[in-house]
């Protein structure tokens, strides 16, 4: 299964690393990089699907200045269902902090959590779990 990816990370290097690993999976149609949750939400608000069955994976860093990952998730949840249904969200985080993980569990839009540093094995395993959520 092939996906389009939207990586949201304020750190240029982390974004490029994520993009490189995503391309190594062989599952990427394309990879967009955005440095803020606000920029990504503006992009999603104007999102027009080119195909009915297009599936995008949002790779979201939790800890960002301005709008953090949790604030992005709050705003994403307000988008129309017709847009949200085409996205799966993978959280990218340095921390396995139980408080953060428990808080993430309250977001139905989050499909997976991937702990940094990214490895190809961890990414492939996470993508396999996400594939199972696609009907």
From TrEMBL:
It comes from the Bacteria. Residues 4-131 form the Response regulatory domain. It holds the Pfam family Response_reg. InterPro entries: CheY-like_superfamily, Sig_transdc_resp-reg_receiver, TCS_response_regulator. The modification 4-aspartylphosphate is found at residue 61. PROSITE patterns: RESPONSE_REGULATORY. Keywords: Phosphoprotein. This is Response regulator. It comes from Olivibacter oleidegradans.
